[in-house]
Amino acid sequence: MVKGISRQVIVVHSPDPNLFEQAIFILKDGAVGEGVTDEALLKEAQKAIHGGDRQGKRRHLYLYGAVWAAGGAVLTGLVWLATVLL
How far, CA to CA in Å, does 69 sit from each of 41, 58, 59? Predict the structure, then answer.
């Protein structure tokens, strides 16, 4: 016996189906109400597919690691300089 819950979904087809045919988004309960249009839901799905903020965060993490590496190199150089001079 199969039990389940009826859910609303948005299916977005890929413009270039080399890797993916479609993306399926499961809507939250009550998401389709109170003035939310189909166009707005589709626009949010497209925005999630294109991943607008993810690349900015990824660049920030690379920069964060580079800053810590440079700080460690400077600290190591200062410790070495202090041991040579003293």
Answer: 43, 17, 15
pLDDT, position 79 = 95
Task: Identify the CA nearest to 25 among candidates 39, 40, 7, 37.
Answer: 7
- Encoded amino acid at 35, one letter: G
Q: Which helix (H) or strand (E) holds 16?
A: none
Do 27 and 45 meet the contact criterion of CB atoms below 8 Å apart? Answer: no
> Which SS3 state, helix, strand or coil, does residue 23 take?
strand
For the segment 15-67, what is each residue's pLDDT rounded down to a tens digit? 777 887 888 888 887 777 767 787 888 888 878 777 655 555 566 667 788 88
Residue 80: count of CB within 10 angstroms of its CB:
10
Q: At 60, which amino acid appears?
A: H
| Distance, CA of 79 to CA of 39 (rounded, Å) | 61
